[in-house]
Amino acid sequence: MTGVKGMLGAVVTAPLGALARVLDAPLRLWQRLTGQGGMVAFFLLPNMAIFTIFVLLPLVINVAYSMTTGAALFLPERTYVGAAQYERLLRCADYTNLATCQEDQFWIALRNTGTFVVLQVSLLIVAATITALILNRALRALSFWRAVFFFPVLLSPVVVGLIWRWILDRNGVLNAALVGMGMDPVNWLLERNYAFSAAIGVTIWAHLGFFALILLAGLQAIPRDLYEAAEMDGTKPARVFWRITLPLLMPNMLVVIVLALIRAVQVFDEAYVLTGGGPGTATLFLTQYIYEVGFASLLKNPGLAAAASILMGGVLILLTLLQLALGKRNERKGRLK
Amino acid sequence: MKKTLIALALGASLMGSTALAGDVRLMWYSDGVEGEVMKDLVARFNAENPGINVILDEVAYKVVQEQLQIQLEAGTGPDIARVTNIKTLAPHWLDLTPHLSDAEYWRTNFGAHADWMREDGSDAITGFMTQLTLTGGFANATLFEQAGIALPGEGATWDDWVNAADQVAKSQGTAAAFAIDRSGHRISGPNVSYGANYIGADGLPAPVDDGTKAFAEKLVGWVEGGQMLRDTWVAASGSTYRAAADDFINAAIPFYYSGSWQIANLSTKIGDGFDWVATGSPCGTAGCSGLAGGAALVAVKYTQNAEEVAKVMEFFAREDIVKEFSERTLFLPAHAGVAAAGGLNWQTEDANVKAALDAFVAAAGDTLPAADALPAWKWASPVYGALVNRISQVMAGELTLEDAYARIDQDIAEQVAAAQ
Question: pLDDT-derived band of residue B27, with 50, 70 and 90 as boundaries?
C-alpha cells in the first residue's frame, strides 16, 4: 500500500518538481529586477487576468452597450445615443406616480424589488436565526434536522420554482387539499398579495438553510462559559439572547445580512418560474425586467437592458461597499477588545 | 512508422475537414409530432446524401424566440432554422436563388408566402413555409352536449360563443368558459374582425384604433366577468407567451381560441377523452377573420456551406416530401402544388382531426385583408408584444384601458424608433 502511495506521490510530484526547476531561474531574475512587489504581481496575474476577462471587460462592454441603441450585437455596428437610455429609464413627470414614468415597468420592477428586499431579507434573517438557535440545541437526530433545513439549498432554483408552482397552482396540491377539506380553492398565483407573498416565502424556503448554517457556525463559536456564568447569575433567557448571543453573533449576522441583501436584489429564477412576473406586474423584479427587455421580447433592446443592469449593478456595488465597511468596523472592534 | 503517422494525421485532417464542409446544422422546434417526422426525414436525407451530414438540433420554441436572434446578430447560429418570427429576422436569411437547381419551382410553389420571409422590396428565395397555420377556435363537443347547449353555428359572433361556452362552464363546473393563448398574434385576428387595421398609410404602425379597442374591451370584460380563464393572461408579465392548450386538453374550458397547429397536439393528448371540433374564428362587426401564419424553414446567410444548405432545402421542399410531412404532422401544406392536388391522406385514426383540418381549410377563406397583410409586415412583432403586455396589465387591474392604449402606442413607437 505504502509502495503504491509512494509511487502515486512520485508521479504527482515529479512533474511539479520539474516545473519548479524550470521556473526557478526566471523567477529569481524577476524578483531581482522587480523586488517583492513584482513577485506579488506575478502571482496575482492569473487571477487578475481571469477577473479582467470575465468580469471587468464584460462590465466595460455593458457600459458601452448602455450608450447605444439598435438590435445589432457588435458595438461598432450599434448607434451611439449617449445617456439617452438612462434618461428613458429615469424620466418621470411625477416621481410619486409611476404611471407617469416613460419606462413605467422599470420603476414598477424597482419598487417591487425594493419591497421584496426589505420584506424577504427581514423575514429570512429572523427565520434563519430561529432555525440556527433551534439547531444549536442538543436535539435528538440533530444531523438529520440540519440536513432537512439545508436540503432546499441543494436544489436548482428552477426546480424550486416548479415544485412550488405545482403546489400553488390553481389545480395544485394545496388547492386539492383545500377542496378535499371542503374549502374553496384559492388562486394563490393570481392574486397580487398572495403571489408576492409566495415569491417571498419560496425564496426564504430555498435559501434559509444556507444562512442558518452560517449563523449556526457563529453560535457554536460562542464560548459556553459565558452562558454558564449567565445561568449562575439567574439571567433570563431573553436577556441572554440580547446581551450575549446576538452581540457575539453579529460578525456572522452582518455577513448574512449583506449576502441576503445582494441575493434579494438579484432575485429572478425561482420567482420567474413561479409567477412569471404576474399577476400583471405584481412580481416583476429588476432582473426579469432586464431579461425581458434584452432577451425575451420580440423586438429586443439590449441597450436599454444594459442601462438597467448598470443601474442595478450600482445598487449591488453600494451593498458590497457596505459589507466591506461593516467588516472593517468589526475587525477594528475585535482588535480593540 | 513516421510515414504511417503522417499518413494517418493527413487522413484524419482530411476526414475532419470533409465532415465540417458537409455539416448542416438545422435548428428545429416542435408544437406536436413534427420533430419525430423530421428526425425520420433527416435520417433519410443523410442516407441518400453521404457527402452531407444534417445535424438536427431540437430545441424548445423559447430558444428560437429568445436565443436565435442573438446568435444571428453575432453572425453565427445554425445553417437552417425553423422560425415563426420570419419577417423581423429577414435580414439574416440567405438568398438561395443562385444555389438552387430550379428556382422557378420555388417561385411557383412557395411564391405566395415568399414576402413573409424576405426584406421589403427583395425578390430573394430564403426558404419555405413548413406549414400554413390559421388562428381559430376549438370546442369541447362532449361538454357542450352534456350541458345540452348547441354549438353556435356559422356566423356566430364572439359574444355568441362566449355566452354559449359560459352556459356550458356553469353547467359542467369548469374553471372558465374559454381561453385565448397569451399572445398578441392570437388576438389580432379577432381585432381585425372588429375592424382593426394595424398598418398606417406610411407602412408604419397606426395608433390603436376602434377595432382593437372594441375587442380589447371585450377581453378585459370577459376576464373580469370570469368567462375567460384568468391564468393564461394575468399570471405572467411582459410579452411572455402562454398557451392554454393544457386547460382545454384537461377539459377545464369548453372553448379555446388558438390555431391549426394545435390539431396534432390535441389529437395526441386528448385521444378518446372527449370529442372536440374546430370552429373557425367567431365573427366581429367586420368579419370572421383568423390570422394566417406558420413556421418557415429558412437558410441562414452566415452558413459556410451554402451549396449543401441549398441541397437540404431542396430535399425538404420537394413535393413528395412536403406531402408526406403534411400528412404525418397534420399540418396544412404551404406548397401550392400539394394544396392544389388535394387528396392528402392524413395519417390519423382520430375522426376529430380530419373534420378539424377541413374546418380550418374552410375558415382560410374568411380572413380579411387587414389580417392577410400582417404576416409580411415587419412591424407586426412590436405591435403583438405591446398588445399582450399592456392588455394583461389592464386585466390585472394595474391600468385602465385608456391608459393601456396610450402605452401601447408609446411602446410601439419607441420600439420602432430603436429598431430604425
Answer: very high
